[in-house]
Design goal:
28% of the residues lie in helices and 22% in strands. It has 230 residues and is an alpha/beta fold. The chain has one domain: Rossmann fold.
């Protein structure tokens, strides 16, 4: 269940996606007095983050967390938390509460329960989840052929999993597919012709593990809004 939106350039994409996110956050604040936003790291969302940070909003009622995190300290160049603090938690959005996923342990598996407990404090369903996509079809840190293990949980669908990618650096922690889909706005945000080709392949029938982004594209729980520009 997807909604494809193509834009003339990155600026137009960032403006439209920021507007959709802010609208969803405002609705969450209006309906329950608080809102939650899940974002991804990397270079692609930096322009989006700048627009969000400048948006007038009751950011003190918004809690932000990450879709996934590399298992590195926040002062590491590869830290998603570092990217969010530097590019999103500024200007108006500096008032938002940030819940990182990383804990100071040697590997993510020993910290899954603590990170899941912190995540449980966010308003659910999330008001917006914004994800990217790699050229291998991964999203968040759901990679093809990765070793994964869930956090201890009383439910069959835990919110977090530990991940050891086979072709990417660092162990990871990631929201599970069920947690990513627990949202009112699900946005897939990417640029470039190469990734468009990947999306076209992922839209074809096939196993979820081949292109993990299929967890978003081939489900009927929530519309996946694809924001793309060449």
């Amino acid at each position: 269940m997807i909604e494809l939106q193509r834009f003339a350039d990155t600026a137009a994409l960032d403006a439209a996606l920021a507007e959709a996110i802010v609208q969803s956050l405002r609705e969450g604040i209006y309906q329950r007095g608080a809102a939650s936003l899940v974002v991804s790291g990397g270079r692609t969302p930096r322009g989006l983050f700048a627009r969000l940070a400048a948006a007038p909003l009751a950011w003190d009622r918004v809690t932000i967390t990450l879709a996934d995190e590399r298992w590195v300290a926040e002062d590491h160049p590869d830290s998603n938390a570092r990217s969010v603090r530097e590019t999103l938690l500024r200007d108006h959005a500096a008032q938002a509460r940030f819940v990182p996923l990383y804990r100071d342990t040697a590997e993510p598996w020993s910290a899954l329960a603590a990170s899941a407990a912190a995540l449980a404090a966010l308003p659910r369903p999330f008001d917006a989840v914004v994800l990217g996509m790699g050229e291998d079809g991964h999203t968040a840190s759901l990679f093809p052929a990765a070793d994964t293990a869930p956090a201890p949980s009383d439910t069959a669908t835990p919110d977090l999993i530990g991940v050891r990618p086979t072709r990417a650096p660092h162990d990871r922690i990631s929201l599970s597919p069920s947690a990513l889909l627990d949202t009112r706005l699900l946005a897939l945000h990417f640029t470039g012709a190469a990734k468009w080709s990947v999306l076209c392949e992922a839209l074809k029938p096939g196993p979820l593990g081949q292109y993990p982004v299929r967890n978003l594209l081939q489900q009927e729980e929530v519309p996946c809004r694809v924001f793309w520009t060449a």
